[in-house]
Each structure stands twice: as C-alpha cells, then as structure tokens.
Amino acid sequence: MTEATQRTDGTATTGADGGAPVVLRLDNIRKSFGATHVLNGISFDVRQHEVVALLGPSGSGKSTLMKCVNLLERVDDGQIWLGGTDITDPRADQDRIRARIGVVFQQFNLFPHMSVIRNVTLAARKVHHWPKDRAEARALELLDRIGMRAKAGAYPDQLSGGQQQRVAIARALMTNPELLLLDEITSALDPMLVGEVLDMVAELKDQGTTILMATHEMGFAHDAADRVVLLRRGVIAENGTPREVMDESQDPETKEFFSHFR
Ligand code: ADP
Ligand code: MG
Fold first, then answer.
1. Nearest ligand to residue 230 Cα
2. Which ligand ends up closest to the CA of 55?
3. Which residues have any ligand 1 atom within 6 Å of their CB?
4. ipTM of the complex
5. How far is the CA of 36 from the centre of ligand 1 (A)?
6. What average pLDDT does the segment 21-44 reach?
7. Among 100, 174, 103, which residue's Cα sits nearest to residue 134?
8. pLDDT digits (tens, 9 = 90+) for 161-170
C-alpha cells in the first residue's frame, strides 16, 4: 500500500493507491498524567468513510486518545489534524472544531431532566447558535431515521439504555460532523441492548460515516471495522485489517490479548 503524501498544511492528497482523503491524522501524540505516560508517540490516520476500531486493555489510553481528538485533553506533544486543520494549535477555534466531530461516550450522554428533542438540539442551539427551527427540523429528521421520532417528547428514563445511546448518536450527528468518535458506547448496556446500538453503527458505516470507535466488542470490530488499531503500553502494537491483526498476527501479546475474547 502506498502511503498518502502529505502537504505541509497537513491535508493528505489521495495516494497512488487512490485511497480516500485523510479525515483524521494523529502525528506522534504524547500525553502523560504526572509520571504516567499514557500515550507515547501515537501516529495513525483515519480516512474518509473508514471505520477504525481502537482496541486495547482497560487503561491503555483509548479514552485519553479520544479526548485529545475532541480537545477535552491537551496533548503534550505531537499534532492532530482534522482535514487541513491542526486542531492542536492553541489558536484553533475549539467550538468550530468540536462542531466538526461528533462524540458519544459510554454513559451519561443525555441530560435526565430534558426531553429527547431538547437533548438532541441543545449543543446545536447553545454552542453552535443554530435557530430553534433549524435545530428541531434536523433533530426530527435524525430521530426519524433511527425510528425514534415518536419519542421526541420522552425523557431519558423512559427509554431503554440502547435507545438512549441511539439518541446520543443522533445528537452527535446533528452538525453533520466529518468524524464520529464512539468511546465504548455499548459497555454500560445490558447485553440484550448491545445489538441495536451496533446495528446503528453498522448503518452509519453503510451511509459512509467516518468513525473512530473504542470498543471491546471484538466480533463487531472484526466484522464491521475496516481497520483495527491496538494500543499497548502507550504505543500502537498493531494497525491493520481486522484479519491481519485479529486472526493472523504472530505477536504473542497480541494473540494473548485476543484470546480473552474467544
Ligand atoms: P482506556 O480508555 O483505554 O481504558 P484511559 O485513557 O481511560 O484508558 O486511561 C489511560 C491511563 O490514564 C490510565 O492509567 C488512567 O488511570 C490514566 N488517566 C486517564 N485520565 C486521567 C486523568 N485525568 N488524570 C490522571 N490519570 C488519568
Ligand atoms: Mg476508556
């Protein structure tokens, strides 16, 4: 595979392999908390329409990496490019960058005292200053797409955990982001509810959404991800197709890691 060439502004041109443009580029990211070196030089790309699964044991830095991309944590060193924008540049406009990235966490995504429609429209209205009509129209369109329009007036505790996560994904898509970050979005769910959320992620993939997802759902990563990136001790242990990494890697630690999920 030919690597994409990179212009000095960080945007990648399509490579000689005709590969899709690079949406997210992590370039030698380092992040420590005190003496704990969590990310020790992480570099990889996510290309347009790709689903990349970020794997690794608990504490390997998946959430930290996601938070750096979403500007909830600042990197100590290295650069993160979203399209042609160096989002680690301190002068970058954080709200504008966040509007270009959708994020869903493991839990506590929805405000319990607000209806579904208010939850979905909140950031678009308050942070991105959309008028109410525009935000509600977009929210209803998204809720319709996931079969949840009838629940627009419901409160989160009237929904199942799976429905709540699907609403959270809909909210993350409000501003039509270039990149969707999903951080273990099924880990807190009753096993019976995991499937409906993963089905929604698979649908988004089919629609061409670019997704970076931290997950322990190895079956899903294997079947749905275009690429898997395995973190270990602050560095990338593996980066390849699910088959290359999950089935064919000869690295003993990699094999040991995946053996826990069989
Ligand atoms: P993962 O998501 O892969 O489970 P995390 O990114 O949550 O891993 O955590 C990686 C490491 O960083 C852990 O050792 C964790 O304790 C530490 N860590 C994460 N956030 C903080 C923080 N705000 N302050 C101190 N240590 C942190
Ligand atoms: Mg995590």
1. 1
2. 1
3. 33, 36, 38, 56, 58-64
4. 0.98
5. 9
6. 97
7. 174
8. 999 999 999 9
CB atoms within 10 A of CB 9: 10
> Token pair of 123, please?
């950031």
Q: How many angstroms separate the alpha carbon of residue 58 from the centre of ligand 2? A: 7
What tens digit of pLDDT does each residue of 209-261 get? 999 999 999 999 999 999 999 999 999 999 999 999 999 999 999 999 999 98
What would the pLDDT profile of 137-164 be if each residue is shown by its tens digit?
999 999 999 999 999 999 999 999 999 9
pLDDT value of residue 14: 55
Q: CA–CA distance from 189 to each of 43, 195, 217 (Å)?
A: 31, 10, 12
Amino acid at 78: G
E-assigned strand segments in the chain? 22-33, 36-47, 51-55, 77-82, 85-86, 101-104, 179-183, 211-214, 227-232, 235-240
- Which one, of 184, 117, 115, lies nearest residue 155 by Cα? 115
CB atoms within 5 A of ion ligand 2 belong to: 62-63
CB atoms within 10 A of CB 204: 20
- The number of beta carbons lying within 10 Å of the beta carbon of residue 37 is 16
Ligand 1 probe mutation, 31, 40, 58, 63, most atoms within 8 A of CB: 63
Question: Can you give the pLDDT at residue 261?
Answer: 86
DSSP class of 3 = P
Measured from the alpha carbon of residue 182, the closest ligand is 2
